[in-house]
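Dear support,

I submitted the protein below through the web form. The confirmation email said the job was done, but the results page showed an empty box. After a refresh the structure appeared. I'm attaching both so you can tell me whether what I see now is the final result or a partial one.
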Amino acid sequence: MVQPLKASFPVAVVITSMITAVTITTTQASEFSGYIGGEERFFFEDPLSPVQHNSYLSAVAEPEYFHAWDDGTQNLDVKLFYRVDQYDDQRTHGDIRELSWTGVFDNWEVRAGISKVFWGVAETQHLVDIVNQTDLVENLDGEDKLGQPMLRASTERDWGTLNFFILPGFRERTFPGAEGRPRPNVVIDTDLDAIYDFSEGQDHIDLAARYSHYIGEWEFGLSLFSGTGREPTDFSPVAVTPDGEPVVVPVYSLINQVGFDGQAFFGDWTWKLEAINTEARSGAKKGINSFQTVGGFEYTLIGITDGGMDLGFVVEYHYSDKRIYENTIFDNDFATALRFVLNDAQSTEILAGFTTDADTQSVGSFIEASRRLGDSWTLEAQVRTFHGAKEDRPLYSFRFDDFAQIDLNYHF
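What the results page shows now:
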């Protein structure tokens, strides 16, 4: 079934943005674009649960609309998303990725509505990227995000860029349903009310700020966040499925997070670092501080073939003390990858690599490839496998969930 926006999603923000769109009388620039597509996900082995499947088909649409006026100092951005999945009713869902008005006033830019913000520099995990909630049913890599209601004010000066955020309306993380795959060996029921271990619950208003700047070959950002943590701090059991699988609901807590992200460019080398310190402000872990970091480098060989192909080597290390987020996969792990950029007319790119747990030697491998087909079509493919996961580790749930996925999209 379709997953609606929660009741606390600020309706006034959406209505205000829509009124802005329909009352514009001076047209200067408008553009309609987006894509529709189909996806096939095939698993190489039979599932652990009898309600899961070996093959999943889905269809997706993401239309976009952009309109600018007042000499380009004001604009409206709209991006809608909808996916229909063959079996997983939690992956059949819609979302407003973007519905925002932006205005430029002297040295300040103001954005109001629903929007997305990205922070981070690392390849395999974005620790500092906390403004938007993860749309986990879309992909295991956590790159897909839900739209977040926000009021954002930013200014860019010689001494750096400042961004301030007011974030009303918490968005709960999406999780695969009972028939979804891959998923943990528990069923995370997002149709039931999540647990908030503080009085305001989903109505809490979050705050965030970020300062970024560059000095020569160095780029860096410092970020602050105070509000509801986007990742659940725990899961509470509520039932058992007919097949004996536990059913749980997420538990969300208030946190303070201080983050740093930076990268430095030295010739063909790019060095990257992200680090956060998280303080739990509510619940059973109140007062606990936790540290996480990811850092490494990418070395690129330019034009190694007659066709001009670039080859990049990516190496990153992940660490977490697991004092708050005990179920994190990245606690003492190395990630290595090769990036092939063919620089051809079809924009062909391939990223292939694996992550290794230094404690258990379990390995997760991945291949991601993309290529344009003509002027309007794109083909994307990926393969993910899991090897040697130990019984007490999060990846153990995925031990039979190696899969390949193909996406064919038409862009308009």
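Response: this is the final, complete result; the empty box was a page-load delay. The domain at 11-411 is CATH 2.40.160.10 (Porin).
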